[in-house]
Write a structure and sequence with these properties.
By secondary structure, this protein is mostly helical. The protein contains three helices and no strands.
């Protein structure tokens, strides 16, 4: 019997969801502590390096496919979506 070396998709999904849960709880606690002790302006200065590094990594690592596809618009769906968004905004 051979042990799989690749984790299953369920384990990967579980790890991602657990990481999301932990990070969201950590962010909530950290932001609450920072806004009560110092002003909210410091949150901008703390998050600025993370945002700049994310943009730089995206610019370096993202490779876009240049394959041209014919644009097909779902007109009934687009009209329904626009009508529902307008109805929600006016409600």
């Amino acid at each position: 019997m051979e042990i799989e070396k690749q984790p299953s998709n369920k384990l990967i999904l579980f790890g991602l969801l657990l990481g999301l849960l932990v990070s969201s709880l950590n962010q909530t606690i950290t932001v609450t502590a920072m806004t009560t002790t110092v002003s909210w302006h410091w949150l901008f200065f703390v998050n600025l390096p993370f945002g700049v590094s994310a943009v730089c990594l995206l610019a370096i690592g993202h490779r876009e496919n240049r394959i041209k596809h014919k644009l097909i618009i779902d007109w009934p769906g687009a009209i329904t979506l626009c009508g529902s968004v307008i109805a929600i905004l006016l409600a």
